[in-house]
Amino acid sequence: MSLPDLVIASEVAAALAEGRPVVALESTVITHGLPWPTNLHAAQALETAVRDVGAIPATVAVLDGRLRVGLAEAELVRLAQAAFQVRKVSRRDLAIALARGEDGGTTVAATMWIAHQAGIQVFATGGIGGVHRRHPFDVSADLPELAQTPVLVVCAGAKAILDLPLTLEWLETHGVPVLGWQTDEFPAFYSRDSGLGVDARVEGAADVAQVWRARQRLGLGGVLLTVPIPEEHATPAATVEAAITAALDEADAQGVRGKAVTPFLLERVAALTEGASQRANLALLEHNARVAALVASALTEEGRLKTED
Ligand code: PSU
Ligand code: MN
What we know:
The protein has a single domain, classed as Indigoidine synthase fold (3-Layer(aba) Sandwich). Helix 3 (about 40-50) packs parallel to helix 12, helix 9 (about 205-220) crosses helix 12 (about 275-309) and helix 10 packs across helix 11 (about 260-270). The protein is α/β, with parallel strands linked by helices. The protein is globular. It has helices at about 10-15, 30-35, 40-50, 75-80, 95-100, 110-120, 140-150, 165-175, 205-220, 235-255, 260-270, 275-309; strands at about 5-10, 20-25, 55-65, 65-70, 85-90, 105, 120-125, 130, 135-140, 150-155, 180, 200, 225. Manganese (II) ion (MN) binds near residues 138, 140 and 261. Manganese (II) ion binds near residues 138, 140 and 261.
């Protein structure tokens, strides 16, 4: 790879070179999404979920000012212990973190971009950023990244701390296809439905792989695959709604702005729901990692069949 800042772990590099499935994982969820030590357990559980399905996990982060793809156990611990003390690195923060030799957790936007530089096509996360409620000019950099960077992002939709209808409008305007994994509805993170539709329902990994291949042939950018939270972990939207409203009021009262908004709201909703939101979060993260590994496997399987022709 010609990008001198990029360091790909040997296990990940070998899998990519041999055409074996690889799934990228983000790290802002570790540094700014969950508290210690839940964040470490989540990071480890995600890697295990990917391996269980036969794919190689590649957690992405910035360490010592390098773009890192695939972390050692001790490096996961280092990031998890540094929660809220290191930079939250989205697209605009990458150059700063590199220039300063920092550690940082990469958002969906930054992780997509780095994954693409490394040649990874599939990326699993919990929820993407989006258009904020009450502040519709606050649009996560995750959305424009989906519009331009060719990576398939697997998530459980977007959290209800965001404005879901406006988030979908943004994706429509900027041409990002939204797929629903065995569902016709856009999932709302804690709950399986939102009353909002997806662009296409997909029944399995082969179905997703076909759409992804076509999107790649056209060179049109990313794809969002939304996966509903498993039934047994779903929380009715109404249960979380009161906590979200309270968290939004607190954020406004305290004048929380910019990149601090999402971590602030996540932390307040977790506190106000007494951890119920975090348990659901862990369950859907693991489930998304498994689905992403299935899709990555379907893609490498297709590649193998083609070269055997
Ligand atoms: N949503 C969650 N958990 C998270 C995030 C979003 O439910 O941890 C993180 C992701 O890393 C996402 C980022 O990319 O927050 C979005 O931040 P912002 O809204 O500042 O772009
Ligand atoms: Mn924002």
